[in-house]
Amino acid sequence: MTTIQKPSVQKSSVPADLLALDARDPLGHKRGEFILPEGVIYLDGNSLGALPRAVPARLAHVAAQEWGQQLIRSWSVGGPAEASSARAAHDWMSLPDRVAAKIAPLIGSAPHEVAVGDSTSVNTFKVLAAALKLSGRRVILTDGDNFPTDLYIARGLGTLMDGLEVRRVSAASISAHLAPDVGVLLLTEVDYRTGRRSDMAAITAQARAQGALTVWDLAHSAGAFPVDLNGCGADFAVGCGYKFLNGGPGAPAFLFAAERHHAQAPVVLSGWMGHAEPFEMAREYVPAPGARRFLVGTPQVLGLSALDTALDVFADVDLKDLRDKSLSLSHTFMELMIPLQNRFPLTLVTPQNETERGPQVSYRHPQAREVMADLIRAGVIGDFRTPDILRFGLTPLYHSHADIWQAVQGIGTVLEARS
Ligand SMILES: *Cc1c(COP(=O)(O)O)cnc(C)c1O
Questions:
Q1: Is the CB of 237 under 6 A from ligand 1?
Q2: Residue whose CA is closest, atom 14 of ligand 1?
Q3: Is 281 left (phi over 0), alpha (psi -120 to 50) or beta?
Q4: Which member of 125, 225, 236, 242 is catalytic?
Q5: Ligand 1 centroid vs 217 CA: distance in angstroms?
Q6: Taking each helix axis from N to C terminus, what angle separates 319-343 and 401-418, rounded to the nearest 10 degrees?
Q7: Which of 20, 47, 282, 367 lies 20 to 30 Å from 390 when distance is taken between CA atoms?
Q8: Distance between the two ends of the chain, CA-based, in angstroms?
Q9: CB of 149 sitting under 6 A from ligand 1
């Protein structure tokens, strides 16, 4: 077995131009707000975001105090007998709304258009069902290479709706397939394999012109760069809490429903927590105002609490800085990789054009699975995606250009050792 040297960060060897970029990085101070393991360069924040430093204390407080001591009383806003600080921290009932209000500015929406809970997969079901019903049509058009759960959920919906067709076409031909029978266009803004970012504004406008509604999956967008759902005229969207929002494994997901649809969009998973007055225990379902109606069951308090604190990291972040740095990191990565592409069988699959680039860089390699296993052992953590993709996620909140340089040194060492 070959042993591979762990990447030890030797600042002195990092090229001066990269150190200069880091020195004037307006987000440089954000790295200190995360706990990052020693001896590892973590390029997988697009799969599981790193742990924000403030989260463990919040979780400990929720467990020991809010749950352990206050028990059932934590659901509601504290009465006059309680200390005012306890009153402010509890109110589990409004936690989904408070988290929604923190996500809303990251995705270009109003707080009452966002609901937080369940998983991205379940939320995809909710908004797809609502959008299809609203459209009055029976065709879901989607990218045949969309993330599996999006395709599976669309298919599953077909078991409930007679005559539903899931039309899978290539991403490049989506516009050409926006026929008048398409009810819903289901797309992921950034392709999870290639990192290609689609033109949300243009595609949403084309769909609307054909009378189709849009459902955007923001798994690789929200928290990675500014998203402008309302500016684009999007109808519905979903996204993950545990990727670029750093809410922790299995964090609650979010959904977006444009205000203009609230009155008409059916709530198919009409659980009691989406009711206007859950504790009235009414016999008839009356939806809560706004997107809150799309909550289903009891809020996931532990996960919501972690996500709530994790989102505070964004409080002083200018999303334009986030995008600028993300592009600078990916540009740096691609440039540094060129000599390795010339020596090893690596093929860049991420667009070099900035407008088409998301927050990751991916390469094809014939032994991608084995190469990534070696890289992880060497302390450069990216991930492998079938069939042959090496995926490197870049997170401008906690990566420096020096990290990127260090990662590419590690990739070079691993590829060298294998050849
Ligand atoms: C990660 C990801 C999901 C995850 O869905 P879960 O229900 O959270 O497992 C959905 N869609 C896309 C595009 C993803 O990348």
A1: no
A2: 219
A3: left
A4: 242
A5: 8
A6: 20
A7: 20
A8: 14
A9: yes
Among candidates 148, 276, 375, which has minimal Cα distance to 267? 276
In degrees to the nearest 10, what's the CA dihedral of 90, 91, 96, 100?
-80
Which residue of 46, 123, 146, 147 sits with most ligand 1 atoms within 8 Å of its CB, as the best mutation to test the pocket? 147
Distance CA 305, CA 281 (A): 26
Q: What is the pLDDT along the chain (419 residues), one digit of tens a residue?
A: 344 445 544 555 999 999 999 999 999 999 999 999 999 999 999 999 999 999 999 999 999 999 999 999 999 865 444 445 544 458 999 999 999 999 999 999 999 999 999 999 999 999 999 999 999 999 999 999 999 999 999 999 999 999 999 999 999 999 999 999 999 999 999 999 999 999 999 999 999 999 999 999 999 999 999 999 999 999 999 999 999 999 999 999 999 999 999 999 999 999 999 999 999 999 999 999 999 999 999 999 999 999 999 999 999 999 999 999 999 999 999 999 999 999 999 999 999 999 999 999 999 999 999 999 999 999 999 999 999 999 999 999 999 999 999 999 999 999 999 98
294 in active site = no
Tokens of 100: 């929604």
Q: Of 30, 58, 243, 293, which one is the catalytic site residue?
A: 243
Q: How far apart are CA 55 and CA 68, in angstroms?
A: 18
Which residue's C-alpha comes closest to atom 15 of ligand 1?
A: 219
Catalytic residue among 147, 225, 333, 392: 147
Helix axes 16-23, 401-418, angle to 10 degrees: 140
Whether the CB-CB separation of 231 and 248 falls below 8 Å is answered with no
Q: Residue 122: in which H helix or E strand, if any?
A: helix 120-135
Distance in Å, CA 91 to ligand 1 centroid: 29
The two structure tokens encoding residue 176: 């050409």
Q: Is the CB of 244 under 6 A from ligand 1?
A: no
Atom of ligand 1 nearest to the CA of 122: 7
Contact 308, 99 (CB under 8 A): yes
The ligand 1 atom at the shortest distance from the C-alpha of residue 146 is 13
